[in-house]
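Quick illustration, no need to memorize.
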Amino acid sequence: NPFNPATTIYYSIKKEGRVLLTVHNLLGEQVSVLINEVKPKGKYRVVFNAGQLANGIYFYKLCVNDYVAIDKMTLIK
């Protein structure tokens, strides 16, 4: 899943809730907040532009109510 410099993150939520979508580096430091708002149930997508970040592995963390998902992304410039 390498990307340069942008990638699209797709997600869906089953019921309305606060959505927090953040990006972290390998040290666990938060480098971006993509979404932090209440959303109704549905399917969504958000574009993450990493043009200002260095090459490397990043993780996005999706939190919706009590649900948490983490996935890896590789930035190659």
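The chain has a mean pLDDT of 96.
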